[in-house]
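User: Can you predict the 3D structure for this chain?
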Amino acid sequence: MELLDLKAEIRETKGKSAARHLRNNDAVPAILYGSKTEPVSISVSTPELITLIRKNGSSGLFIKLTIAGDVKPVRTVMLKELQSDTYGLNYLHVDFQEVDLDEKITITVPVEVAGESVGVKGGGLLQVIRRELDIICRPGDMPEAVVIDTTDLDMGDSVHVSEIDLGGDIEIPHEVDFTVLTVVHPGGGASDEEEGLEEEAVEEASE
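Assistant: Here is the predicted structure, written as structure tokens:
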């Protein structure tokens, strides 16, 4: 697991006007918290944050955060949430979660597809219903993605979350055995099973 470097400063002032002042001076207001960490208001450099995100994306990032003026100047954190404006042009706020590398945490990772399924070769369409999945693991065990091999899937076949085994000590939490992806018939009427999957997807989205 790679730890990315980022610097921060303690944020003394709070409120909308203070946050606006920070943004106007190339800084982004942020908050640091954790299960054993009292919330700390901080700010990070906008150019440095932009560079970090452009190089590494924003999903599943673990950072060595150096905080000037903090009682604990170096912390290992995860980028938990990144808020931007309506057009995605400006970062408005960042949430960092302090993590213990020996304890399990919940992380969201992307779903990736491997192989060309039998059903797709026969003219079917692959539908990925869940583009991301939550997993529970230690930070060092985090996979870059949940990779699903679709080679043996025929039309009407699907993969449910309970069928995905990431090995090791990694868990995918779920209360309902929801569908992650499926191969459907092209055009025309859908089968009863496919209609059921569509209804299931709608219900899951509503939840």
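The longest helix spans residues 192-206. The chain has two domains: 4-98, 105-206.
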